[in-house]
Amino acid sequence: MVRNATVSVSHPITRGESFAAILQHYGVTPRHVAAWERAARQIANIHRLEVGHDLTLRFVAGGHLVGLRYELDDVHQLTVERGAGSQLTARLEDIPSRVRVVGVRGTIPNTFYRAAQGAGLPDPIVARMVDLLSAEIDFDSDVQPGDRFRVLYEERTRLDGRRLPPGRILAADFVGRTRSAAAFLFRDDDGTPVYVDAKGRLLEQSLLRYPVDFSRISSSFSYSRFHPILNRQRPHFGVDFAAPAGTPVRAAASGTVVWAGWKGDFGYHVEIDHGGSVVSTYSHLRAIDRAVRETHSVRQGQRIGWVGQTGLATGPHLHYAVFDEGRYLNPLTRRGITQPESVDPYEFKLIRTSLMHRLRTIPGGHVPVPSTAPVVLSALAQARRLGAVILTL
Fold it and tell me: Is the pTM of this model over 0.70?
């Protein structure tokens, strides 16, 4: 045997298994298990392992554990390694993946969502397009048949070929009869990815319109709606999103959790204080993510729970509401925000020109055509530098 050779064992998590029991099954002593647990807890809660996720253990000759890797979700993994002097170091890493840029274009026959589905766009990309372009477009009232859209986004797969959630949108535009909009990925002076509109102004999404991947709106904001269970008219200060039970629900903006638990007719319910008197709420959840607890912080887009049918609900859906100083707001009619600050005009012109060229390379021409399936851009287009944005291959 080669000296210091390592052997890796991949263990799929099954129901009822614990971190400690798995390590002991592979010969790790209880004392050493406790040390690995302490290190792992610095990064993640490993007391409840996700069924179907993999825990990979790495051993050297003699059966000594020197490293482990656990898939936290579709994007991140926990890595713990033994270093010099038997010290254990834990860190959070991105799951290794392959990324390619795909382009999609479509023409709208009736609704944007149906056209996007027909074009093969993943729901997270559809939702992100709505978030980015809502500063100029109300996707519930401005969209008309014949309007067109284009988008460049990152398609991600694991090294073994399994599909991962899509990555970033690089560029998107919407050309309508009455309104048009565009968004481009840019990097600010600190190297932080930001989005800008067609004029180079910073786009800030104070609140996501769709806290679930783009889905059917089953009941809109209304001051008088017939309640199907109570059998009477009453206000509906929020929006109901019909989605399959178990669909992930995400935080509309970063903030502090002020309620996470059961709340009467709302069932399992989460409230997030975003500062500046703005609060968002999420009701009828099947379950709340265990990382979401009162007084804990959450970031925009973080999973907070799953669509359910708890409380006073006739079917699986999310009830989403927004308050400002205690007053209800309609989250679907709130326009996105463009900041008065603009990026460097010369650099932005180069980036916009490059990205618009890539949008135009998506097959289909400029005449109305049926929505097309995603088309992989050429290797040259993927590898070229997009102004301040580097495509990851």
Answer: no
